[in-house]
Structure formats: C-alpha cells, structure tokens
Specification:
CATH architecture: 3-Layer(aba) Sandwich
Number of domains: 1
Bound molecules: NADP nicotinamide-adenine-dinucleotide phosphate
Shape: globular
Number of strands: 12
Number of helices: 8
Largest sheet: 7 strands, parallel
Helix content: 25-40%
CATH topology: Rossmann fold
CATH class: Alpha Beta
Order of helices and strands: EHEHEHEHEHEEEHEEHEEH
Radius of gyration: 18 Å
C-alpha cells in the first residue's frame, strides 16, 4: 500500500498552483499542473475527464482577473460546476477550493461576488470539499500599492491587514488536499496583523519608493466599504509562517 496520491491542480501553472504542484511532486505525489494553456479547461470542460482519471483530490486555484461582475461570476460558477461534476463522475475523493477571507462580507466588490458564487457552487455540488479562505498574498501588495496610488500619494483603506506568502498558501492547500474533506470553510492568514498602510509602506520602502502612504476611512476595497476587521479572519484560522520582512528580504 502506498500513500502517494494523484492530485490535479487546476491553475497549476499560476502563482499558487505552480508552488502546490512542486510541493506535491517533491513529496512523491503525482501532480497534474492543469491549465487552459495545456488543454485542461475548467470553464469549457475540455480535458477534464482524462485529467481526473485516477485522481484522489483536486485543488482549484484557477483565476480570472476581472471587475466585470457578470463575467467573473460566470467564470467561477461555471468552472466550479464543471469541476465538481467531473470529479463526482471520476470518483475523486476531495475538492479543495482557494477563496478569500470574508468574501461573503465584501460582495459589493465584483471580484468577491464571483468568489462567493464559486464557493456556493462547490457547497451545493454534492462533492466532498474543503474551502480555504486566505487573506491577500504578500505577492499582491505590489498590485494594491499601484491601485491605490494617485498624484504621488498612496491612499489606502483604514483597515487591518494580515497578508500571507504564496508559499504558505500552497502548503496549506496541499495539506488540506491530502487530508479529509472538512465540508466547511477554514480561514488562513499571515503571521502578523497590523494596519493596511504599514504593509504598503514596508513594501514601497523596500523598493526605494518614498511616496507617502495614508489611511483614509473614505477609501473602499474595490467597491466594498470596509471596517477595521473586514480583511482579516474573525475567528480561528491557520497561521502562515513567513513575515513581510522575511518575504521582502528573500
Ligand atoms: N491575490 C490574492 O491576494 C488572493 C488572496 C486569496 C485568494 N486568492 C485566490 O487565489 C487563486 C489563485 O490566484 P493566483 O494568483 O495563483 O492566480 P494566477 O497566478 O493568475 O494563476 C491562475 C491560473 O489559472 C489558470 N486558469 C485560468 N483559466 C483557467 C481555466 N478556464 N481552466 C483551467 N485553468 C485556468 C491559469 O492558466 P491558463 O491561463 O493557462 O489557463 C493559471 O494557471 C485565485 O482563485 C484567487 O481568487 C487570491
């Protein structure tokens, strides 16, 4: 008897997916790096049946970056329906979805509305699942700093933040996929909670960018108004290891 498994990583060529594939392979498991570019398309269903044959688990970290609510909702909902029904047909034991902390409270943000629809498609599918909701990645801070910059000032929401390194996210997903389905949502966050602006400031300082960073209660999170605790887990959560300082140094 071997405990080595076949795990299909949907979005296995992306930021998180490529790290999850490597972790699985380094541990001796068979990992399929599934993506539309290599003929496995969660949205159209192309290549799913063959990819899922003999698979024990699926990790879904596919992504479409859009703020068009209808398009993003259609992408995530349709992909999740296709995946979970193909998994059930193939006898796959466990579906693991990566979502975002407090996606349900932030649904005025069109991307979050799409993630919520994706979660709901998984929960209602009848497939055994675990939903891992992560906070924003360290790797996403650059995008945030750019998005909130205007006229030499970076004005960000006045909220707490607890970002996590992509490699910590990949580890948590692999651990979840190799474990039993929780039929529930678990939160995942980085090791440090502090003001949003402090992480943006640390990132910009490391890049030699001295532009001022200011917290402003009037600034929203891409369409969703936020309170202090909107972007951080409210209860128990899995904690990543890598601090922003360690990540910036690496
Ligand atoms: N950014 C954050 O801070 C954050 C925080 C929490 C959770 N998340 C979630 O993390 C997930 C992964 O993000 P990421 O940054 O790793 O994404 P990414 O680097 O943009 O990678 C996306 C992957 O999805 C694949 N893909 C896209 N359409 C597909 C399709 N129809 N079928 C199969 N594969 C498809 C892409 O490959 P092809 O183009 O070849 O298809 C690529 O491999 C997302 O779902 C996001 O919501 C992000």
């Amino acid at each position: 008897m071997t405990n080595l498994k076949k795990v299909v990583v949907i979005g296995g060529t992306g930021l998180i997916g490529s790290k999850a594939v490597k972790l699985l392979q380094d541990a001796g498991h068979e990992a399929v790096a599934a993506s539309s570019r290599n003929g496995i398309n969660a949205y159209t269903g192309e290549g799913l049946e063959a990819a899922l044959t003999g698979a024990d688990a699926v990790i879904d970290v596919s992504n479409m970056m859009s703020f068009d609510k209808a398009a993003i909702t259609d992408f995530f909902e349709t992909s999740s329906r296709n995946l979970t029904s193909a998994e059930r047909a193939a006898g796959v034991r466990h579906h693991v979805l990566l979502s975002i902390v407090n996606a349900d409270q932030l649904a005025a943000n069109p991307y979050m509305a799409g993630k919520l629809a994706q979660e709901e498609a998984v929960v209602s599918s009848g497939q055994a699942y675990t939903i891992v909701r992560a906070t924003q990645f360290h790797e996403f801070i650059e995008t945030l700093a750019g998005a909130y910059a205007a006229d030499g000032v970076v004005k960000v929401p006045d909220t707490d933040f607890q970002p996590i390194a992509a490699s910590d996210v990949a580890s948590a997903l692999v651990e979840a996929a190799l474990g039993e389905p929780k039929h529930a949502t678990v939160d995942l966050a980085g090791p440090e909670r502090a003001a949003f602006e402090s992480f943006i400031r640390a990132y910009l300082a490391a890049k030699g960018d001295g532009n001022p960073v200011i917290a402003d209660a009037a600034v929203d999170y891409f369409g969703a108004s936020v309170a202090k605790d909107s972007l951080v887990p409210g209860g128990q959560y899995i904690k990543g290891r890598i601090t922003i300082a360690e990540w910036l140094k690496a």
